[in-house]
Amino acid sequence: MYQPLITFCPHPAIFTQVLLIFVISTENTTKTMAKRKPARGGNRGHKSSKTKIIFSIILIFAIFIYSLFDKRSFQQEQIGEDSTQTESEVSGKPGASTVQLEFPGLSGDEKLINYNGFTVSYNSQAKIPHWVAYTLENYETYGENTRNGRRFRSDNSLPYPQAEDDDYRNSGWTRGHMAPAADFKWSDEALGDTFYLTNCCPQSVTLNEGMWNTLENKVREYAVEYDRIHIITGPVIGKNTHGTIGYGEVVVPDAFFKALLVHDGTQYHSIAFIMKNSKTEDDNIENNMQGCAMSVNTLEEKIGFDLFTALDDAIEEDVERRCKLSVWGL
Q1: Tell me, which fold does domain 87-328 have in CATH?
Q2: Phi, psi of 81 (to 5 degrees)
C-alpha cells in the first residue's frame, strides 16, 4: 500500500536539512560540470537560468514542507504540554462523546449489553446489573415520550439467566431502574429499553420514590446546567442482608451508587453517592443528600470499580479526589 512521505520522515527539520543538502549538492555538481564542459552557441546563459528556476522551485518546496511539518509538530507539543482536558479533546469532536467517559475500567470479562442510549454490564448470577453507564445531553432532558403502557420484561434476545416479572410480584420490592425512564423521553425506543429487567434491581419503595428519585431529578438539572453529564450507577450487593426474591432468586442489593462527571467549560467536576436500600424513612430522608455524597475516589474504594478511566491520567486523580458540594448545589 502506498504510504505518504511523512510516514518515513522522523522529524520535519531532518527532512528539510536532507532536502537542502541535496539541492546544494546538485547545484555544486552542476556548476562543476558546467566548468568542465562549456556551453555551445551562447546557450550557457539560457541553461544557467533554467537551472536557477529548478533550484528555486525545489527550495520553495522545501520551505513549504518545513513550515507544514513544523506547524503540526508545534501543535502536538502544545497538546502534550497542556494538562487541561476539554470535552472535545476527549470525545474527538465538539458535542460528542465517542470515548465514553462514563465507562469504568473494563476487565474484558463483562457481559456488556448495548441498549439505545445506555450500556449495561450484566451480572448473570445475581440477575441484576453490575453497573449501568450513559451520557445525558441537555437536549435529551426534553421529550414527549412517556412510560404509559410500558411493561417490565426480560430481554429474550440474550442468552443469560434473567429475572422474570413474577420474581418481583408481591416481593415487597420495586423494580428499580438504574437508567431511569425519565432520562430517555427523547426516544420511544430508548425509553422502552429501560424497562428490560436487565436494567433493574429490587429497590425499596421508600428509596425509589424518595431520595433516589430526588437524585435522578438532580441529574437532569445538572445535564441542563452543564449541557452534558456522564453517569455510572448500579447496585452495591454488600453483605446481601436482604437475601433474594422470587423463584429466580434475584439478589436484593444492600445499597445503590451513582457517580457523576461534568465539565464546566474550564475543568471537570465529579461527585458520587451511596444510598442504602432501606425500607425505613430514617435512612432515606430527602435532606440527607449531603450525608450520602462522597468523592469518586472514596466510592471506588467501596465498590471496587475504577471509574471514569477515559479521563487523562494527568487530571484523573485530581478530578476524582475533589468533591465540592457547592458545585452541585448541595
Answers
A1: Extracellular Endonuclease; Chain A (3.40.570)
A2: -80, -25
